[in-house]
Here is the input.
Amino acid sequence: MAALTDNGVAEKDIQTQYFSIRQVTKWDRDEEEEVVIGYRVTNKVNAKIREIDKAGSIIDAVAAAGGDFTRIDSIDFSIDDPSAYYEQARQEAMADANAKAEQLAELADVTLGKPTYISESSYLPSLGYPRVYYEGAAIPAPAPPTEISPGEMEITLTVQVAYSILY
Here is the structure.
């Protein structure tokens, strides 16, 4: 947690997803009983890194802080507020639907009326990457810095429009 906050991740962007403490036992053959040899603590944390340029160095800092027991499960990219992108996509989709309907009406030798039905569906993918696990190596080697490249994200919006036909 300190590695995250020390690297500029806001506390509101750090959330514990899962926490558990479990006994670790082994069978004692001499005593013929199970003996507690320790405890395993799991603390799964979700952190939102808002500055993509810092993602690699933050991941490295977290992995270094946790040592060999650190597991980085996945990295996902998302858009905080996609509403402006949806507004633009909606305008383009309606213009495209209207142009196609006008063309079809002209080909059918009818006059296009007003829309009688409009439906929208959208999809905003979360660009995830396969889970990555870091295991301790027998011979430690200096690790190269983690590079993160988010690329581009595609927002998909589908508009279905039915028009009346004027005779």
